[in-house]
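idk why but the lab printer keeps eating my pages so im just putting this in chat instead. protein + pyridoxal-5'-phosphate:
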Amino acid sequence: MKTITENLKNIQQHIIDAAEKAQRNTEDVQIIAVTKQVSIERAQEAISNGLRHLGENRPEGLIAKEEVIGKQAIWHYIGSLQTRKVRKVINQIDYLHSLDRLSLAEEIEKRANQVVKCFVQVNVSEEEAKHGLSVEETIPFIKDLAAYSKIQIVGLMTMAPNTEDEEIIRYTFKGLKKLQQQVVDLQIPYAPCSELSMGMSNDYAIAIEEGATFVRIGTALVGSEGSVSE
Ligand SMILES: *Cc1c(COP(=O)(O)O)cnc(C)c1O
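predcted complex ->
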């Protein structure tokens, strides 16, 4: 069983290599340790290893870990968020990675005590089972958010298809990067859109080559309960 320390060392080397390949600064890439499948103790171990960003995809998991870890971490909500659960989490998180509909924005507007940093989730690969807006829908959606004073669009988020085909994965990440640049060019005050949340255990190196500023890594970093290895 590998420790987080070992896994992190490995991952950091991959990040350095990928950044170098793309002539990017490693400081521009943040690791989000996705702790959704591990215990509070394991999440604390991530913190002891100097990781600051933690990602959870269920309100219950987030609240339980935050009660113990609190402000030592920056909290990312990375899963699809049901409208009725907004009240429970919206004032407990620093970033929401899954804004994908106006009804969610509306509920955030109602429940948030302050401006929420949001990523718009884009289904670049247009897989049926995936959440997120299509590429074509994204800019009109962002424009529609003008009415919501609590929403700030800090970036775009996507998940690549679960495939061995590196070209398909790369194409997905390139698509998100291109779309991000289009949003930046619009210079919308509430949508600076400087961040790109893309890349997971199997594809974070490709994501970094294509411009990711946040990679969301679970299995390869903290493992998953029962098999806390790899
Ligand atoms: C679980 C999850 C991750 C992490 O996945 P791994 O393959 O374990 O690294 C990243 N992003 C989202 C949205 C997730 O749900």
